[in-house]
Design goal:
This protein has 608 residues and is an alpha+beta fold. It has three domains: 4-209, Dbl Homology Domain, Chain A; 248-381, Pleckstrin-homology domain (PH domain)/Phosphotyrosine-binding domain (PTB) (PH-domain like, Roll), CATH 2.30.29.30; 394-571, C2 domain (Immunoglobulin-like, Sandwich). It is built from 16 helices and 18 strands. Strands 1, 2, 3, 4, 5 and 6 form a six-stranded mixed sheet that branches. Strands 11, 12, 13, 15 and 16 form a five-stranded antiparallel sheet that branches. Strand 15 and strand 16 form a beta hairpin. Helix 1 packs antiparallel against helix 15, helix 3 (98-117) packs parallel to helix 8 and helix 7 packs antiparallel against helix 8. The termini are far apart.
Length: 608
């Protein structure tokens, strides 16, 4: 007989699985929305310039875009129905999307087949060979304030179809056997795999020079990333933080002591994975392993599965060190990588001198290119304040910020805030960025008692609606809490200005995730200052754009991201009120004269 505690645990596990399933469905809907927006951007901004380029006959370019627009139509229909289906269900645990996915995946095949069979790859090759026109296309994207180049957009359809099996498989993982959607989801998974296989065959025939794209898909399938070793999600075939699409630069076999490692060098990080030597090269010694080997095509490695050896090394945290003469004599064809944050060095050995030279050159160049791109990114993102036309009338002392119920897909959050003051973000006259606060935040893994969650949510509802002194709610052990010390002085120029706060999750492997924003009228700070002196705490709700499925997901689960803003208003230039009398002004003037006379007497005495 089950104990009451056992029943509670079972029910809690069921609820958690239901939430996880709904989360993955929302991820599917949200990424589908971004995908069709990207397709629309490519069609609207690049068709005309390509027609005028003369790289291909206009008819062929029109055919490529016709097939691209057909994909846009098909996927828009999928997104519309998915979004409606998710929002229609009152109980998110009953969401049934398997049949819908199955039907739409079948409709996708002719659209994607025609697109991949067109001269799209040939067009990309010609653009690569014409640097001047390639730069022109990049300039078009820059003018639209987008990182989405034509090359990135043209390869999106092939990237997208590889995501469907992964997402549907995750949905199935959290779908109980007795769920009414179980059978349809299994069929949808088979349809997505069949679609991938068919399109990959066509793409393989059409595409030789885009071999790295296929390698990224192989990595997603064959490299396991345990959450105990890395708390950030990595999608190999996706966007980097500021380098555009992820690119595989170099790969091969390295050794650390006697351990054989599969090494993968990307444009934004370096990854080492372990594979069983016995399963790849049974009976071979280390020096018998072929020097030149393609891990993705070699008969003994292409079907192997490997596991992360160490957390991926981001170039911000990585140095490449050549050995001195004595070390080189003892360990030929070897080099060290230094992980700055861990103050640790790892000795790696290549199979031959030529491989050793190749790895050193590739690693050094990748780090150099990464640093250049980072400098450019930071320069573009640099804040340029708008100089106010009048001096500040007061100062806002922003003491600290506290956030509750922030949501991210990662297992740990590296959260930071941007704060600005002005009429809007573009015309802000002052901006600051908080330090990054790290917290294991994925609420799916939080073992907080249900009663405490209920209490927290109740407190948040009150907090988000106005003023509070927080009390026990700011418990340091609260897993929903993130705290930033700011201690910043912000000039108040106009009482009609707004204080803007945006929260982000800083991931080293992807563009920063937007977590929510709030805007507060400076007038409300001034009014509160009149009623209460000293330090004041104000609660505000954080908002996500309503068209984001994650915003709907948070609402459905009664999760309310919000902020506590702790501040003090300090007067700079006291403003004379209308009620101040002429007598008060004369008195103040008399005091100033007396002070001046006393000062003159003191100066005369000092001189004598």
């Amino acid at each position: 007989m089950q104990t009451e505690n056992g029943e509670d645990n079972g029910e809690r596990h069921k609820v958690k699985s239901s939430q996880q399933r709904f989360l993955v469905i929302c991820e599917l809907v949200e990424t589908e929305q971004k995908y069709i927006e990207q397709l629309q951007f490519i069609s609207q901004n690049f068709q005309g310039p390509l027609q005028r380029s003369g790289l291909m006959p206009v008819e062929e370019i029109d055919t490529i875009f016709k097939h691209l627009n057909f994909i846009y139509t098909v996927n828009s229909a999928l997104y519309t129905e998915l979004n409606s289906q998710v929002k229609a269900e009152e109980d998110h645990s009953e969401n049934c999307i398997g049949a819908l996915l199955k039907n739409h995946l079948k409709l996708m095949l002719p659209a994607y087949r025609d697109y991949c069979s067109s001269n799209m790859v040939s067009l990309l090759t010609k653009i690569d060979g014409n640097q001047e026109f390639g730069a022109e296309l990049e300039e078009i994207a820059a003018q639209q304030k987008s990182y989405q180049t034509f090359k990135m957009g043209a390869l999106r359809p092939m990237q997208r179809i590889t995501k469907y099996p992964l997402l549907i498989d995750k949905i199935l993982e959290f779908t109980p056997a007795e769920h009414s959607d179980q059978g349809d989801c299994k069929e949808a998974l088979e349809c997505s795999k069949a679609l991938c296989e068919e399109i990959n065959k066509i793409f393989d025939q059409a595409c030789v020079e885009y071999e790295p794209f296929k390698k990224l898909f192989w990595l997603q399938k064959h490299v396991t990333l345990p959450h105990k070793q890395i708390d950030q999600t990595i999608d190999f075939n996706s966007e980097t933080r500021f380098l555009g699409p992820r690119t595989l630069l170099h790969s091969g076999i390295l050794f650390s002591n006697s351990k054989m490692l599969f090494a993968f060098l990307f444009n934004d990080f370096f990854l080492l994975a372990t594979a069983k030597k016995e399963s790849c090269f049974p009976g071979m010694k280390r020096d018998q392993i072929p020097e030149t080997i393609n891990l993705f095509d070699h008969a003994q490695t292409r079907n192997s599965r490997c596991t992360l050896y160490k957390k991926p090394f981001v170039f911000d945290d990585l140095n490449i060190i050549e050995l001195d003469e004595m070390e080189a004599a003892n360990s030929p064809n070897s080099f060290k990588i230094e992980v700055t944050s861990l103050k640790r060095q790892i000795l790696l050995r290549a199979n031959s001198y030529s491989k050793w030279v190749g790895w050193l050159e590739q690693l050094s160049k990748a780090k150099e290119d990464y640093n250049k791109a980072k400098c450019t990114f930071e320069r573009v993102a640099e804040f340029h304040p708008k100089v106010p036309e009048q001096p500040p009338v007061a100062q806002l002392s922003l003491i600290n910020l506290e956030a509750f119920q922030l949501y991210t897909r990662n297992y740990a959050m590296n959260a930071y805030c941007k704060v600005a003051i002005g009429k809007d973000w573009s015309s802000a006259h002052q901006q600051l960025t908080t330090k990054t606060f790290r917290r294991v935040m994925d609420f799916r893994k939080i073992n907080t008692p249900a009663s405490r969650n209920k209490s927290i949510l109740s407190s948040i509802s009150k907090l988000a609606s106005g003023w509070t002194q927080a009390g026990d709610f700011t418990d340091l052990n609260n897993p929903h809490r993130i705290f930033w010390e700011t201690d910043a002085l912000i000039d108040i120029v106009d009482n009609e200005d707004m204080l803007f706060i945006r929260c982000y999750d800083d991931s080293p492997f992807a563009p920063h995730q937007f977590l929510g924003e709030a805007s507060i009228s400076i007038g409300s700070f001034i009014e509160e200052r009149k009623m209460s002196s000293g330090v004041i705490t104000k609660g505000v709700e954080l908002h996500l754009p309503l068209d984001l499925p994650s915003a709907y997901f948070l609402k459905k689960l009664n999760i309310k991201p919000c902020l506590l803003v702790k501040f003090e208003v300090k007067t700079v230039n006291p403003i004379v009120s209308d009620e101040e009398t002429d007598e008060d002004k004369e008195t103040e003037k008399g005091i100033e004269i007396e002070v001046t006379k006393e000062t003159e007497k003191i100066e005369e005495a000092d001189e004598s």
